[in-house]
Amino acid sequence: MRAIGVRSWGGPDALEVVELPEPTTGPGQVRIRVHAAAVNPTDTLLRAGAQAARFEGRQPPWIPGMDAAGVVEEVAPDVDRFSVGDRVVALLVPASPTGGAYAEQVVLPAASVVHQPEGATQAESSTLLMNALTARLALDAVALGAGETVLVTGAAGAFGGYAVGLAQADGLRVLADAKPEDVDLVRRLGADVVLPRGEGFAAAVREVAPEGVAAVLDGALFNEQALPLVRPGGGLAVVRGWDAPAPVGVTVHPVMVGQHATKTEKLERLREQASDGTLPLRVADVLPASRAAEAHRRLEAGGVRGRLVLDLTTFD
């Protein structure tokens, strides 16, 4: 089968079409014919070598991608949740033995697979699990009660958009940042208060929440700059493993989504919320798999709203 992988860490042009053996299922697994794979920032980090330690002792090519949508081709005898032909979405861990999503076929634990949201296309479906689960885990980590105030940074992005939607569904008051061109989008996503990003942002937050917010979900990677915005007793959820001393009474919560890839109940709930419109599925563009390097360049250049998606049925 064909896949998009890297044989040596590097820039977008390190991505290439590679040939791999067709995978077969083991106990508890399913095989999926991948139709679409979302392109996420973690994919660019893998390609560049930022996650090289996770692949120590494994031979290239290494296959990026955490989000796949497609059709079930094979089901292990001990799996009863799926049948051949089911349309599904899957959350993959590229550093695991089964590899990433940029492949014509993937094999992975059935626990990491759910049916596609109702009415969603393959491309739309592929944008859901990794970012939405990260947002869900961030909210779970800060553990706020209904009516409390949460600040979502990077609200126009994929993680941020899902964080806004899930926070609203949890009954929270949602503050969010936005560039001028993204204000309408962030309002549509459900933020109660949209604040301008840039100089004066911290003061604007304090004007709306004088004692600080109960928590920050930091999709914009503000990291230490977000700490002063959190009230004593509050929390900061970070999504890239950042960790540093926090002010007394403020807790930093690193969120590592790969550790929760088999939490089927959470994945099922996210699928339901995508089906009922709580979580809009946003596709920026769909490109043939062979143009993966272009997708990585566009993502790294910034400004993409919604997810870029690779079509794994087209390598032309």
Automatic annotation (TrEMBL):
One of its GO terms (molecular function) is oxidoreductase activity. Keywords: NADP. Gene3D superfamilies: Medium-chain alcohol dehydrogenases, catalytic domain (3.90.180.10), NAD(P)-binding Rossmann-like Domain (3.40.50.720). It holds the Pfam family ADH_zinc_N_2. SMART domains: PKS_ER. Residues 10-310 form the Enoyl reductase (ER) domain. It comes from the Bacteria. PANTHER family: QUINONE OXIDOREDUCTASE. This is NADPH:quinone reductase-like Zn-dependent oxidoreductase. It comes from Microlunatus kandeliicorticis.
